[in-house]
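Tokens as discussed.
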């Protein structure tokens, strides 16, 4: 597939194979979906048409929220009605319907077909991803293994909390005081632990890149960490008397490593080295005596102070002193299993379970039978908001429609939104799909915004080749619509700039301070009529 996106003409898009349509905000995504839907209903498009007209029950449209589903269904119904009226009158002032009418030979028959579609819209296959999975599992109960009816639960948060609290009781309450103290320094209780891991309890089980050994326990990890710290403490006690002379005779740059600070650092570390190890906290000054730090503070051409202690400190600092990964790994596995076991006991099924069940069924030995049954029911699938798709969801779509004759899989979304991992979306899923489709297209005109805003955004994001972090997701400039040429923001008789850049003066600050200051500036600008010198703090 070419990396260059083609400008989309929705009335000429080939309606077979896999196609990716990239639609920025305001470029007519919903209009495009509705136009493609009408073409598929009537078999329009000449050589680019689908082999036969489809019914509303054969045209699958998937989006990611109930609100979007209702909006899309209403928009499609309205377009079907309007095109039907245009067919009856054989004329229209709508440019889209005018082009479609030119292709319709028998307008009376088309009007009848559209009337039937309009009446069947309540049965139209416009679903959320979970609604689609649930319906496929129920309609293909034998192939999917869903032979027993289960109650759908919409909110699993209470189940997850109960499972997390159970994990905490079993693993944390019985801990010896010194280990419990380390755990409580990280999480005050099960609620805090759940906040950290909740997103990983949804959807597919995460893959742990470097999992701890199966037989490792909190006690064994704690003992290992304490032993590492105690070893360095002993090395410090043995070598501390040599350090002043060793550093003094070296080529250390005293502007960066002065004697006064050196004495303070040694005193603090020496006090720490005499203490019993009850915490993984290390003195901040310990880094000053790592071999790497000392090398950075040595004059060019001078001799770097060297000692086995310095290398031991390097090693201690290089590997995390934490039980966090061990607790999280064990908690994820046990909490997921506890929740799944409790749902089985109650005969319940969550939204994520439906995805997992369909995914598993499609990957089983009889998976192709199930995929063929779904393709027969839905020869064409349009996936709206595709940037919100996670790896499991894309795997489902791909398993059903990838490289299948006389089918179409149309993926529609805004790749710029995929970087935010909204609802578990994965930028790499989008890039994988982009590399696998037959062709990808872009909508090149913004029909919503003023020319000044469109041009400002184009200029801002065209400053670099990787505006969205990944070169595989390039910024593609769009045009402003002719009908918006006079559109601008006027306040109290004055035209306002399309875009204002507010930057704080002076040194950098924290996110909280920045947000607070900018909120005050924005409020002051609005309250005083967008005057640049209206008393707001200058930025």
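Sequence:
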């Amino acid at each position: 597939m070419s990396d260059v996106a083609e400008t989309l003409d929705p009335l000429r898009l080939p309606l077979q194979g896999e196609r990716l349509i990239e639609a920025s905000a305001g470029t007519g995504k919903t209009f495009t979906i509705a136009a493609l839907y009408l073409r598929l209903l009537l078999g329009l498009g000449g050589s680019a048409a689908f082999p036969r007209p489809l019914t509303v029950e054969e045209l699958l449209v998937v989006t990611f929220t109930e609100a979007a589903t209702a909006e899309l269904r209403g928009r499609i119904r309205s377009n079907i009605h309007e095109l039907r009226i245009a067919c009856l009158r054989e004329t229209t002032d709508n440019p889209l319907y005018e082009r479609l009418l030119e292709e319709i030979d028998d307008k009376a028959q088309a009007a009848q077909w559209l009337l039937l579609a309009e009446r069947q819209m309540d049965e139209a296959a416009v679903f959320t991803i979970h609604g689609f999975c649930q319906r496929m599992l129920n309609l293909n109960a034998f192939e999917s293994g869903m032979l027993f009816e289960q109650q759908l639960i919409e909110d699993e948060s209470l189940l997850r909390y109960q499972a997390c609290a159970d994990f905490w009781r079993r693993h944390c309450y019985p801990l010896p005081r010194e280990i419990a103290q380390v755990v409580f320094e990280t999480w005050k209780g099960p609620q805090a632990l759940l906040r950290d891991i909740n997103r990983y309890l949804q959807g597919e089980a995460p893959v742990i890149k470097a999992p701890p050994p199966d037989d490792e326990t909190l006690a064994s990890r704690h003992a290992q960490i304490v032993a590492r710290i105690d070893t360095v403490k002993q090395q410090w006690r043995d070598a501390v008397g040599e350090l002043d002379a060793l550093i003094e005779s070296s080529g250390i740059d005293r502007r960066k490593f002065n004697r006064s600070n050196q004495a303070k650092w040694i005193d603090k570390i020496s006090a720490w080295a005499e203490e019993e190890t009850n915490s993984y906290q290390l003195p901040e000054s310990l880094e000053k005596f790592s071999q790497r730090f000392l090398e950075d503070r040595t004059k060019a051409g001078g001799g770097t102070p060297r000692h086995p202690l310095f290398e031991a400190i390097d090693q201690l600092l290089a590997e995390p002193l934490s039980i966090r990964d061990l607790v999280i790994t064990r908690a994820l596995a046990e909490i997921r299993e506890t929740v799944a076991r409790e749902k089985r006991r109650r005969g319940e099924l969550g939204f994520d379970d439906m995805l997992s069940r369909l995914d598993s069924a499609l990957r089983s030995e009889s998976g192709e039978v199930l995929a063929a049954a779904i393709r027969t029911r839905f020869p064409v699938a349009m996936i709206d908001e595709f940037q919100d798709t996670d790896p499991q969801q894309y795997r489902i779509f791909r398993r059903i429609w990838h490289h299948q004759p006389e089918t179409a899989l149309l993926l529609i979304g805004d790749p710029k939104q995929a970087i935010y991992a909204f609802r578990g979306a994965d930028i790499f899923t989008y890039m994988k799909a982009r590399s696998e489709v037959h062709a990808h297209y872009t909508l090149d005109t913004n029909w919503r915004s003023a020319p000044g805003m469109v041009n400002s955004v184009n200029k801002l994001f065209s400053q670099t080749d990787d505006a969205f972090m990944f070169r595989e997701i390039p910024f593609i400039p769009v045009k402003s619509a002719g009908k918006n040429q006079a559109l601008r923001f006027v306040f109290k008789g004055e035209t306002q700039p399309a875009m204002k850049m507010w930057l704080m003066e002076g040194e950098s600050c924290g996110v909280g301070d920045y947000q607070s200051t900018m909120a005050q500036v924005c409020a002051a600008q609005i309250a005083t009529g967008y005057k640049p010198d209206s008393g707001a703090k200058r930025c």
